[in-house]
């Protein structure tokens, strides 16, 4: 993708790369750091995410928690309220 981006003529429109499930969105994003590009990656329905852990109230004994609340794409009961939303309208 980096080679393709370098070959594209300079335009106001940022190129958009679309990937199906199975690609690692974090790895793709890190590989394109510093490039002028957008990524859209479909997530596999079995993907699970975790919120940041809550800070400990007392002096922790042992290792601090690594993960917070579970967010499972296939289980709506684990979904939390969104922190932000994005809505965009185009003239087309």
Can you put this structure into words, describing what you see?
Strand 1, helix 2 and strand 2 form a beta-alpha-beta unit. The protein has two helices and four strands, in the order H-E-H-E-E-E. Strands 1-2 form a two-stranded parallel ribbon. It has a two-stranded antiparallel sheet with strand order 3-4. With 92 residues, the chain is of the alpha+beta class. The chain is elongated, with a radius of gyration of 19 Å. It has two domains: 44 residues, no CATH class; 40 residues, no CATH class.
SS class:
alpha+beta
**Average predicted confidence as pLDDT:** 85
Instruction: Give the low-pLDDT segments.
Output: none
Number of helices: 2
Q: Ends: how far apart?
A: 28 Å
* SS strand fraction: 15-25%
Number of domains: 2
- If you compute it from the alpha carbons, what radius of gyration comes out, rounded to the nearest whole angstrom? 19 Å
Helix content: 10-25%
- Which strand order does the major sheet show? 1-2
Helix and strand run: HEHEEE
Q: What can be said about the biggest beta sheet?
A: 2 strands, parallel
């Amino acid at each position: 993708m980096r080679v393709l981006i370098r070959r594209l003529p300079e335009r106001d429109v940022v190129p958009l790369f679309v990937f199906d499930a199975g690609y690692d969105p974090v790895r793709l994003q890190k590989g394109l750091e510093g490039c002028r590009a957008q990524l859209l990656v479909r997530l596999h329905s079995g993907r699970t995410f975790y919120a940041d852990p809550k800070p400990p109230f007392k002096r922790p004994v042992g290792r601090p928690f690594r993960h917070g609340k579970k967010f499972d794409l296939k289980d709506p009961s684990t979904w939390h309220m969104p922190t932000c939303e994005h809505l965009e309208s185009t003239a087309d």
